Amino acid sequence: MTANVYQKFNDFNLTISDAISTERMIKSDEEIEKILKATDIAHKSLIELDVRGKQEKGAQEWECAYELGYLMRKNGASVESFDTIFASGPVSSLPHSTPRQHVLDAPVLVDYGCKFEGYCSDTTRTFIYTERQEEILNIVLEAHDKAVGAVKAGVKACEVDKVARDIIDEYGYGDNFIHSTGHSLGLDIHENPSLSLRDQTVLEKNMIVTIEPGIYLEGEFGVRIEDMVLVDKKGKLIGNLPQIL
User: What are residue 18's phi and psi, to 5 degrees?
Assistant: First the structure.
């Protein structure tokens, strides 16, 4: 709220509860189905976009982001889950870049999602073109896969984060992993819990979380791979989009 509105509430004693956000952590079967549908729409749309073909034709970042939004709507989404990130070249080292009027460089990082009947999806893929980029992608993919494997009911959110973070740190890139490993999502793109160093939340069946480790080399490029995982006795990867495209 704005400062002048806040001042009007100075005399109020407010008690803030997290009851609603806590209730929303665990998804119903109906909610899960809607998130699965949103994911299917998003994954189908990225394949149809053909990022490598766009790169060869000299398309610009904003063009690709705009067309991806169109394809998701065409395939049944109501809207994007958030502003699509379509970052290429050195700008891919910025985790939250804005699409530019700039011809696609290499690599190309796409972080995107859509809503189906109010529920979000969230996916990231990085299209690599050089051996150096492949080297970094393989490290990120190892961290991604091990973290996905660590997701299960009864495990703390911070423990999943540590799995991904330790792998990237072992390769000497710990300082280049500059955000949490993931977050929950549903009606909002970011919900509780977060898969971060400090979140002690114990994962429960039918929570849905993202796994999105990344390595960002300032001024060079960045690589992130993100998928959504349904919590059960073991984590169930949502969608069938290959991690390497």
Answer: -100, 25
